[in-house]
Amino acid sequence: MKNSDEVVTLLREWTRTFLHRSIADVVCAARQRGFSMSQVGALFQLSHRVTSGVSDIGDSLGVTSAAASQMLDRLVQQGLIARREDPNNRRAKQITLTEGGRGFIHKIMKARQRWFESVAAGMSQKEREVVVAGLRILIEKTGKANPDSLPCHRSIRKQENARK
At 124, phi and psi to the nearest 5? Predict the structure, then answer.
C-alpha cells in the first residue's frame, strides 16, 4: 500500500468513527427532546449565524419555505428559537436562537468535548504530541482546500449570490 493510500484509509476510518460518535450524541439529544434531525439541523445552522430567514433554513435543509416554517413552529413553541418580523421586509421573518436554543447546542457540544477529553486522557504524552502534530498538519492542509470545488458548495454559493 502506498503511503498516501494509507493516509486516505486512516482519514476515512477516523471520519467514520468521529461522525458515528458525533451523530450518536446529536441523535440522543434530539430523541430526548422529541426533535427531528431537520429541527436539530436548523438549530445548528442558527448557532453559526446571528439570524436567518425561513427560506435560508429551508434551502440549507433541502425543504420548501413552507415546510421549514412548519418545522420551526415546534422550536418556537419549545422556546428554542424566536421568530420576528424582518425590519427590511415585513413579509419575511427573521429566526434567531434563544437562550434555550443556545443551551441545547451547548449540551451537545459539551458531550463531544467530554468524549475528546476521554480520548486524550487515554493517550500517553508521546501519543498526544504525535496527534497534535498530525492535527496541525491536517488543519493547515484542509484550510488550503477550496470548498467551492465540491458540487454541493458551488450550488449553495450560486443560491447565496442570486439572493444578493
Answer: -75, 165
Which run of H or of E encompasses 127? Answer: helix 125-143
Could you give all domains of the chain from N- to C-terminal order, each with its CATH number?
3-122 (1.10.10.10)
pTM listed for this prediction: 0.70
Give the pLDDT confidence of 111-152 residue by residue, as tens digits.
889 999 999 999 999 999 999 999 999 999 888 766 666 566
Angle CA 136–125–9, to nearest 5:
50
Buried b (16+ CB within 10 A) or exposed e, 130-162: eeeeeeeeeeeeeeeeeeeeeeeeeeeeeeeee
φ, ψ of residue 90 in degrees (nearest 5): -60, -20
